[in-house]
Each structure stands twice: as structure tokens, then as C-alpha cells.
Amino acid sequence: MLERILAGVRVLDLTQNVAGPFCSQLLGDFGAEVLKVERPGSGDDSRSWRSPEAGSLSPHFIALNRNKRSICIDIGSDAGSAVVRRLAGSCQVFLHSMKPGSAEARGLGYEDLAKSDPGLVYCAISAYGEEGPLAHLPGYDPVMQAFSGLMSLCGQPGDEPSRVPVSLVDVGTGMWAAIGILGACLERSRTGRGMRVQASLLETSLSWMNALIVAHAISAKSPQRMGSALANAAPYELFRVSDGHVMVAAPNDRLFALVCDALGCETLVRDARFATNAVRLANRAELHRLLEERTSLQGMASLVAALRNRGVPCGEMNGFGQALSHPQVQAVGMTGPWSEDAGLPPLVETPLRMNGQRSHARSAPRALGQDTEAVLREAGWTDAEISALREGGVLG
């Protein structure tokens, strides 16, 4: 079902690393034909993000580059930029992650390409946005986690700041870019005109903290590191048990009473220090101590069962391997086979179903430049023209 959404749409993708490739992979899952433009010789930087063992694979490249064709063009040369401009004329979507001004300097800006194709959907992904004193700078996910203040909130109180250990900002930016592209395609279907879509790592970082930004405006206080806890509700955090930890989320009085019932400490519900969420927050440390005196005497499985039987949202603190092997994780089917025998680790699915079905577009990531000549021929280049470009070092 998903791969019918963008069937017939061709995307020229000049991105690399994480944010842009995640965006174009989503478009490929929705059925778009994605032409991934890579540097001759080395390709997408993420191809080299692998362990030093011989024959090792890059998990990032595998995870972010299915459903694409790889073409190698030196866009730093005038001839290479000209090839890209000509290819763009056969595409409905143009996607890049160059620093602001870089695409324009190559004649690949929105105004340049939209002159000949007003229906073009043009998406630019940047680090800091396209305006402001830092707009010209490059950036990566952890740089933006630090700059935006997000990293300052991760970790236990008193500890050093911690990076969120997944590329949360990159992936989020790719999602916003894909949403913008889908919206622009819908607008084009109505009006025949394309749009310029902009997304940045900084704006995505700020959007993840929307409630915290509002809270800061209300209280004029900066949020602090709280480990697993939530600033506005208690109990809403990890608790020690005899064989690990359990996350308990009880952000209202009814759920708090059910937690106390499960732990056999119903008197806490009537304790004036814990009667409402507001006073529970004021006395969070003491409440945590009293509850953990009870939880620490129980095993993980028994506590989770007792809480779930009462309808309390909770979950065991699983290790990575434990989570992946859990029957519930297996049941949702987020990993699957490639469409061909690619000799690759399992494919991680797009977390979306429509009419109960996931996308069946699942071609494996391509070898560097595997499709260069085929794509150019399909777009009208002759064999002689392709040979001349290759001899001139424009193609990889």
C-alpha cells in the first residue's frame, strides 16, 4: 500500500550521512524512484562508518539507503553540476543537504531549477537553518544536541551531560523533510506548482523540547537533568527491583493509588505530602525512597505483572538484546528480509502501516556508482557523452 503513494515520482537525492538519507529512504518506501548522487571514489561518508575488521559493513549505510539507485557525479566540477541540473529536469523532487549557499553557487538553487520546472519540489536540509549568524556552518547530530540545550538535559543529576545515543535529531529532521515533501507533492497535484521545503537540525532539536520551552517561558526556570524522571509528574521514573529496574508512569492521582495498592502501601495515598501531583512533585525524593523500599523487595516480573494487572503503565528495563527478542517486539514485525538474497543483516522496517500493510519496496543498498550509466542513458545521454564524462573525471 505505501509504495503506491509516490509511484511515478522521481527524487534526485544529493544528501549523505543520516538526516537526508533517512528522508529519501522514506520517500523510497512510499514508492518514489530515488537517484542517490554520491562522490566518485568514496561516496556517502556513512559508507566508511564501519568497524576496522576486514569485510565489515556500515550499519548506518545499510539502515538508511534501501530503495535507491547509486550514481557517482563530481558535483564540485562545472561539468558535474551541469549533469545534475540536466538530471533534475527529469525529476519531480530535488533533495540536498549542502550548506546554505553551496547549491546556489553550483547553479543548483531553487530559483535556478524552478525556472525551467515550476512544478519542482525542492527540499534543502541544513544544520542551523538558512538565516542567522551560524547559517553557513556544518553540523552533525551530537553537535546540535549540545548547541540546542538538549544534551544538557540528558543524564542523572550531578553527572556530565549525555548524548541521546541514537541520531534523534538527524532522524527527526529527515522525518520533517519527508513530511514537507509529501505536503508539497500534494499541493503540486492541486495547483501544478512546486514548493521550496526547508528543514534543519536546529529547528528539529528545538521542536523535540516544545513542552520544556513552554515550561521555561511559564516559570523562567531552566529544566535540569532528571535521569529517568519527568519534571511535571510523580511517580514517573525508574525504580530498583531485586533483579534490575522497572519504569513506572503514574502521572495522575488514580494511577498513583493503583501503584500504592500494588505495593501494599495504601496509606501513602492519604498522606498529605502525596495527596496530589503538585505535592508529590514537591516531595518527589521522599516519595521515591518510600516506594523503592517496596519495589526493591520484588523481582522485575512480579512487579510488572502486579502493576499491569491494575492498569498501571509500566515496563521492565530491558537490555538491548532482551528488547529485540521480546515476544511483543517480535509480534510488531519491525525487522524483515530484503527482497533479494543480499547477504545483509535484517531490514528494519518503516514504523508505519496503511490498511494493515507495510511497504514492500525493499531493494538493498547499491554498490557505489552501480547505476550511473543506466540512469544517464535513461535520461537521454548517449554512450559517447557518458564516455566523455567518465574520461573527464565527472563520473565515478
Summarize the structure.
This protein is α/β, with parallel strands linked by helices and 396 residues long. It has 18 helices and 11 strands.
Globular, elongated, flat, extended or rod-shaped: what is the shape?
elongated
Through-space gap between termini = 35 Å
Helix percent reads 25-40%
Order of helices and strands: EHEHEHEHHEHHEHHEEHHHHHEHHEEHH
- Strands of the widest sheet, in order across it, are 3-2-1-4-5-6
Briefly note the CATH topology name of the largest domain.
Rossmann fold
**Which segments are poorly predicted (pLDDT under 50) over 5 or more consecutive residues?**
none
Q: How many whole angstroms does the radius of gyration measure?
A: 25 Å
Query: How many extended strands?
Result: 11
Structural domains: how many: 2
Largest sheet features: 6 strands, parallel
CATH superfamily of the largest domain: Crotonobetainyl-coa:carnitine coa-transferase, domain 1
The CATH architecture of the largest domain can be given as: 3-Layer(aba) Sandwich
Structural class: alpha/beta
- Tally of DSSP helical segments: 18
Q: How are the SSEs ordered, and which strands pair?
A:
Blueprint: E1 10-14, H1 19-29, E2 33-38, H2 59-64, E3 68-72, H3 78-88, E4 93-96, H4 102-105, H5 110-114, E5 121-126, H6 141-147, H7 168-191, E6 196-200, H8 201-208, H9 210-219, E7 236-241, E8 244-249, H10 253-263, H11 267-270, H12 277-282, H13 284-295, H14 300-309, E9 314-316, H15 320-325, H16 327-332, E10 335-336, E11 347-348, H17 372-378, H18 383-391
Parallel strand pairs: 1-2, 1-4, 2-3, 4-5, 5-6
Antiparallel strand pairs: 7-8, 8-9, 10-11
Helix pairs in contact: 1-7, 7-8
